[in-house]
Specification:
Elements: H1 3-10, H2 18-22, H3 27-48, H4 54-74, H5 79-103, H6 108-120, H7 124-137, H8 142-151, H9 156-169, H10 173-184, H11 186-189, H12 198-213, H13 220-228
Helix pairs in contact: 1-3, 3-4, 4-5, 4-12, 5-6, 6-7, 7-8, 8-9, 8-12, 9-10, 12-13
Length: 231
């Protein structure tokens, strides 16, 4: 493994004053931050041990980004301590996806990853084009595109069209229930309902979109809990 990967893996230890942040939030937020940190350490170790797959980089980036957004919501002065780390991980993730695409340009997952990365970098028009390509290659990616339309573009009608099509394509009960849950809470996803848990909920929607893209639904009950909790 090259030195750049080592630097990224060690960055988790450089997030300063994490204990100070934890001391000023409630138990729910404490647990959420710790879960992000645990996931970051898990996927950093996977990469360090040589399992540096696109999927592990995707999960590492996803959790670094989630941690940054979560901390930033609590206290914006921590942005300069964490944003550079997220950017570094994002760049390595992008390199990994590009290398994968040089071998196989017709994997819908790679276009999904590109869309997620490019959106983070601020080009939502290009990101939507990548989502469209992902759907063209595999229509099951339509849920992820709907999530992007809702959460990032705030396009309720477009999102609902994609979610309803995803519901038609769903193959089992848990998948259908998961998508129905999203449709029922579309206003939360597009940010029209404001509450102190909103940014947490939308973060879990991002996780769910990622998992749905790979046919995994074990986050369903966790997401249900957060949506149904009193706001």
């Amino acid at each position: 493994m090259n030195i750049e990967n080592v630097e990224i893996i060690e960055n988790i230890d450089n997030i300063e004053n994490l204990d100070a942040i934890l001391a000023n939030v409630d138990k729910f937020m404490v647990n959420t931050v710790r879960e992000y940190v645990d996931e970051i350490k898990k996927y950093s170790l996977e990469i360090e041990c040589g399992n540096d797959t696109v999927l592990n980089y995707a999960r590492l980036f996803q959790n670094y980004r989630g941690l940054y957004k979560f901390i930033h919501q609590k206290d914006k002065k921590y942005e300069y301590k964490t944003r550079d780390i997220v950017d570094d991980v994002c760049d390595k993730f992008l390199e990994k996806v590009q290398a994968e695409m040089s071998v196989n340009k017709n994997m819908s997952e790679n276009y999904y990853h590109l869309a997620y990365i490019i959106s983070y970098k601020g080009d939502n028009n290009q990101a939507l084009e990548y989502f469209n390509k992902a759907v063209e290659l595999d229509e099951k990616q339509i849920f992820a595109r709907g999530e992007f339309k809702a959460y990032t573009l705030h396009d309720k009608q477009g999102a609902l069209e994609d979610f309803n099509r995803a519901l038609e394509l769903a193959s089992d009960k848990s998948e259908k229930e998961c998508i129905e849950l999203v449709i029922d809470n579309i206003d939360i996803l597009i940010g029209r309902k404001s509450n102190r848990f909103n940014f947490v909920i939308t973060g879990f929607y991002l996780i769910m979109a990622f998992l749905l893209a790979y046919g995994c639904y074990y986050f369903y009950m966790m997401i249900t809990t957060y949506i149904l909790m009193p706001h």
